[in-house]
Amino acid sequence: MSKEIIPVSASCYFSVSRSGEFHQFLIYDYYDPEGYYAKLLSKPRKCRDEIRRLCLNMQSFLDQEEVKVNGVRVYPKVVTAYLSHRGFMDSPYIAWVITFKGKLRRGLNIFENTTEREEAEYDFEIVWQFPKKSRIVKVQISTESQVVGRNTLIVWARRGEIVGGYERIEFTMY
């Protein structure tokens, strides 16, 4: 990747199923003034190699996290990634599809994630959508958050804020 590519923002969407499947769609937006990624798209083999490298790199970050569902460690896995642009060749984004599974039950469930605390290099938002007939009970996260309705959680941080550490989401399934 070119050193001139600058991360601008990130968005993450989690969808949690009643069967305990967690589907994560993670998107990073970049500013790429020299069009490195735009040029890469016209070179299929190099593009595939870059996507493979991006997947391995993201997996290495995920492997450093300690993720638990109801006290049992789970291991998020990168399924795939892709590269595209938001209208302009200097505005690429990379999207990863990540999954993991935990054992959920009727009643109280707890999602926990532990990462190193760090300063956010860019703004980010995270949206969690829990199953129908569930309710978010308690949220312990180092950044701003808001429960919308009963089963949607929105989390956000701005560049320069301290993020990460121990995070916990308690939710009840009926």
Spatial sequence of strands, sheet with the most strands:
5-6-2-1-8-11-10
Strand tally? 12
Number of helix segments?
Answer: 2
What is the number of domains?
Answer: 1
Largest sheet: 7 strands, mixed
- Fraction of residues in β-strands: over 45%
| Low-pLDDT residue intervals, each spanning 5 or more residues | none
Overall pLDDT? 97
Secondary-structure-derived class: mainly beta
Distance between the termini: 47 Å
Percent of residues in helical segments? 10-25%
| Global outline | globular
Order of helices and strands: EEHHEEEEEEEEEE
Radius of gyration: 17 Å
Structure in words:
This protein is mainly β and 174 residues long. The protein has one domain (6-173). Helices cover 15% and strands 56% of the residues. Strand 1 and strand 2 (21-31) form a beta hairpin.
Sequence-ordered SSE layout with sheet pairings:
Blueprint: E1 6-16, E2 21-31, H1 36-40, H2 44-64, E3 66-69, E4 72-74, E5 77-85, E6 92-101, E7 107-119, E8 123-129, E9 134-140, E10 144-148, E11 152-157, E12 162-173
Features:
5-stranded antiparallel sheet; 174 residues; mainly beta; 7-stranded mixed sheet; 15% helix; 2 helices
Quick gist of this model?
With 174 residues, the chain is mainly beta. It has 2 helices and 12 strands.
